[in-house]
Amino acid sequence: MKTLPSFDELKALAETDPQALEQLRLDMSQDIIDNASEHMKPKLQAQLSHINNVIALGKNPNHVNALLMKELMRQFDRFATAVNDPESLTATTATVTPFRPRRDAETVAVEG
C-alpha cells in the first residue's frame, strides 16, 4: 500500500495539480478496498461510490468540504443511534399501496 504524502506535499499537489491529487485519492482508496477482507470489500466499494457521488455534487472545493462534512455528520448521527437506540433503526412502518392501472385509460395504437 502507498504511504500518504505529508500535508505540505498534499497542499502543493492541490495547488499545482488537482487532477493528480484526485487520482491519488482514488488510488489510495482502491488500495484500501483491495487489501480489505472479502466481506468488507462490497461495503467499502459502496461507501467509496457514495463519497464520489457527494464530491460530484460540489461546485467548488469549499462546497465539496461542506457537503462531505454534512454527510459525515449524518453518518455519525446514524452510528450514535445504532449504539444508543438500535431498535429505532428497525422499527419502521410503511403503508404499501399497490399500483393499479386505470381501467378507463385509452389504448393508443402505434403504427409502424
Describe the structure concisely.
InterPro entries: DUF3135 (IPR021482). It is built from five helices and no strands. It is an all-alpha fold and 112 residues long.
Q: Could you characterize the architecture of this molecule?
A:
It comes from Enterovibrio norvegicus. This is DUF3135 domain-containing protein. This protein is mainly alpha-helical and 112 residues long. The protein has two domains: 57 residues, no CATH class; 30 residues. Helices cover 64% and strands 0% of the residues. The protein has five helices and no strands. The longest helix is centred in the middle third of the chain and has 24 residues. It is elongated. The protein starts with 6 loop residues before the first helix and ends in a 22-residue tail after the last helix. The mean pLDDT is 90.
What's the structural blueprint in terms of helices and strands?
Elements (H helix, E strand, L loop, with lengths): L6 H10 L1 H17 L6 H17 L3 H24 L2 H4 L22
Helix pairs in contact: 1-2, 2-3, 3-4
Organism: Enterovibrio norvegicus
Protein name: DUF3135 domain-containing protein
Pfam families: DUF3135 (PF11333)
Which regions are unreliable across 5 or more consecutive residues at pLDDT < 50?
Answer: none
Structural class determined from secondary elements? mainly alpha
The H/E string reads HHHHH
Number of strands: 0
Can you give the helix content as a percent range? 55-70%
Beta strand %: under 5%
Using only C-alpha atoms, the radius of gyration works out to: 22 Å
Tell me the distance between the termini.
59 Å
Mean pLDDT: 90
What count of helical segments does DSSP give?
5
- When the domains are counted, the total is 2
Shape, per Cα inertia axes = elongated
Outline the biggest β-sheet.
none
